Amino acid sequence: MAASNFNWSLGPLIQVTDIGIRQAAASSSTATQTNAQTSPTMPASPSLSGAGTPNGDTEPPERRCWICFVEDSEENSGAPVSWVHPCKCKSSLKYAHEACLLKWIAEKQGTRRTQVSCPACGHPYKIVEPSSSVLNVMKFFDGAIQRSIPFITMAGLSVALYTVSTTFGAYCVMVVCGPEVGDEVLGAERWGWRTWVGLPLVPFALVSSRWKSADAVLPLLPFVILGSDRVHITFPPSPALTICLMPWARLLYNHLHESILKLIHHRPDTKSQRRLSQSERVRQTLDDANPEQPEEDAAAEEAVPELRRDGQRVVVGALLLPICAAICGGILGELGLRKYVGNSFYRNIIGGCVFIVSKDVTTEIYKYYLRKQRRSRRIANLD
User: Is the pLDDT of residue 301 over 80?
Assistant: First the structure.
């Protein structure tokens, strides 16, 4: 009896509690659905909301072209706009207008059909364009022409250089040899393969004669160009023999020139020895007592700066040598050499030798005065 009274008294309380729990659960479910529908920060699931592109991909709320900086909200709704994401960039650099990107790629390519990549991530842009057999054939020929342009240019420059060298060689022959010998050398019956090879080599032989590295080749060059049938040992020597002997005469002259310069620079100067101060005499005595010091080091103390010998000066001086020889030969002829040497070729050869010797003597005199000026330099005191 007591137990039944206890269960009856707790029955209404349990029933009320059960109803309250159910109402609280229903209120919580309703609030959750309301917040999911009204919250701006909570994105809806694509499977529930059905939002997205026709392909099922979701788009960011605002797309902006990284080229023109125009967003979706600023687009004109009446004009269709095509958006592309052609690279691996994300966020604000992911999308671009297709028209803007095509224009930007065209500006980057210019006239060349090179691959253009994204400036941010480096991914190459893939351009899809229609193909045509006629266009492909034209592109092939256009590429072949473009690849052959450097070779055509080099060939044109080579022909131009050959023409200029041949013309200059023929001019040097006419200037040095004179009209009689020049017409004989450049006559139509003389134009064989040796002439076509020899005349273009004249300017290069003149320029290479200024360096000692060409001493092993220059003596043999005239024999190769003229041929053995045109070289005969006679007295006085024929023009062909004279041209063949000129490289050997150059070697002999250079050897004599160096030997004379060594004798001049190593000759003791008694007057300069008398003007030496006590300290300079002591230093000279110490230098003489030191056998390990080379002579070049002692001579370098009073060495004169080398005269300017750049490439342009060497080339121009070598190319002007035949003209200078002809001028000197003409001057010597007017001074009376014509009475003894009637052929203008030999007069020009003599005039060229006189010009070379005069130039070297003048150069050594110039160096002597430069050396003298260097020895007399002093440091000015500040007043």
Answer: no
Query: Do 109 and 221 reside in the same domain of the chain?
Result: no
Which of 155-168 are b and which e, b meaning 16 or more Cβ less than 10 Å from the residue's Cβ?
Answer: eeeeeeeeeebbeb
**Is there a contact between 71 and 64 (Cβ–Cβ < 8 Å)?**
yes
d(C-alpha 235, C-alpha 230), whole Å:
15
Query: Model pTM?
Result: 0.55
pLDDT reading at 46 higher than 80: no
Tokens 């010597």, residue located: 332
The domain of 123 spans 63-70+81-129
Q: Which residue bears the tokens 């034209």? A: 138
Say if CB 374 and CB 302 are below 8 A apart.
yes
At residue 154, the pLDDT reads 95
Concatenated DSSP letters of 195-222: HHHHHHHHHHHHHHTTSGGGTTTGGGHH
Tally of domains in the chain: 2
Question: Of 190, 202, 203, nearest to 229 (Cα)?
Answer: 190
In three-state form (DSSP H/G/I as H, E/B as E, the rest C), the secondary structure along 92-107 is HHCCEEHHHHHHHHHH
And the tokens for 248? 């050997």
The answer on pLDDT for 137 being more than 80 is yes
Q: Which helix (H) or strand (E) holds 299?
A: helix 295-300
Are 180 and 319 within one domain? Answer: yes
Q: Are 121 and 87 in contact (CB under 8 A)?
A: yes
- Cis peptide preceding 236, ω within 30 of 0: yes
CB atoms inside a 10 Å sphere around CB 174: 17
Q: What does 98-137 look like in DSSP terms, one character per residue? A: HHHHHHHHHHHHTTS----B-TTT-PBP-------HHHHH
Whether residues 109 and 193 share a domain: the answer is: no
**Encoding tokens for residue 151?**
């070779």
Q: Same domain for 239 and 123?
A: no
With a CB cutoff of 8 Å and minimum separation 6, the contacts of 355 are: 321, 324, 325, 328
